[in-house]
Amino acid sequence: MLKWTSAVVASVLLCGASPAFAGPWGNVDCSQAPAPVCDLGVGNNERPHEAWDTGRPSSTDQSSSDAEDPYVGCSYKPVDYQAPDGQPQEPGGWFMVLCSPDGKDPLSHGPVWVPSGGVRPTLSPEQVAEMARNRLLLPSVTISASPADEQLVSLPTWLWLSGGWEEVSASASVRGVSVTAVAKPMSVTWSMGDGGSVTCAGPGTPFAPGHRDPRSASPDCGYTYRTSSAGQGTDAYKVTVTVTWAVTWAGAGQGGTFPNLTTSASSAFRVAESQGIATG
Question: Which of its termini does the chain have fewer beta carbons within 10 Å around, N or C?
Fold first, then answer.
């Protein structure tokens, strides 16, 4: 059982001994040596959707059960469909375009009319942009904080990301239509576990041991606890970090935006009571 005292608590590392520790007021990288009091959650670095690659093309004839598109990895499935304004007079058939086995991928659409022996309809720039978005690989979030030991009530805590704040892009091309999607980190919200939170416009400034007063506040991303974490699960606050990404696309003389994406990670901060700060 953790015992809290009214004096500054002796050094008990959140993340164990690691190269990131540099004395009582140094840095701690909570992804380098996870421990019961430094439980780092991995950010979401998976693609929002995975394209279904069905391989090489086959016939576009309506009798084909799975006519594959060589350009986008989507398949054409024949369907019975009666157009509201009447059936086309030319030979051909109606197809659903399926870009995942279950047809739930955002690129799936239809029905579309495909003339017999004709060229399958190409995708619009917006649909190609969706492909590019699906290829975005967002980086995992890495949490860092100072003090390196337990946080202290009434002492400013410096917060920053040492990973997970870099712009990423991905491209897709279909029949001469090339589009690039870009994901740019816009803000990071820290939920501090005590009911409080702080939103920062950037990744935060790392604390520089020996160059800053440990009682000073971060210039751009920090928090001050007012109550200790004694009595919480593992006697620590669960801290959750969420990065919000703005996603845009451009290509084929057009451009647009997608709904924001997010990545997240979590850690545990112990917060102790103190009546004074020993600096010497």
Answer: C
Same domain, 85 and 171: no
Asked if 108 and 98 count as a contact pair (C-beta separation under 8 A), the reply is yes
- Residues ≥6 apart with Cβ < 8 Å to 137: 45, 46, 47, 168, 170
- Boundaries of domain holding 186: 28-47+136-272
Sign of the alpha-carbon torsion through 21, 24, 30, 34: positive
- CA torsion, ordered 125, 127, 129, 135, to nearest 10 deg: -150
Same domain (yes/no): 80, 154: no
**Domains of the chain: total:** 2
Is a pLDDT exceeding 70 seen at residue 44?
no
Say if residue 141 is in the same domain as residue 41: yes
pTM, entire model: 0.63
Q: Are strands 254-269 and 237-251 parallel, antiparallel or unpaired?
A: antiparallel
Round the CA-based radius of gyration of the chain to a whole number and report it.
27
200-237 pLDDT per residue, tens: 999 999 998 877 788 899 999 999 999 999 999 899 99
Alpha helices in the chain (DSSP H): 125-134
- Dihedrals phi, psi of 129, to nearest 5 degrees: -60, -35
How does pLDDT run across 81-136, given as a tens digit for each residue?
888 888 788 888 888 877 766 666 666 777 888 777 765 666 788 988 988 999 99
Cβ atoms of residues 94 and 113 within 8 Å:
yes
Of residues 228, 233, 229, 218, the one with CA closest to residue 39:
233
Identify the residue whose tokens are 């190609």.
Answer: 128
- 266 residue type, one letter: S
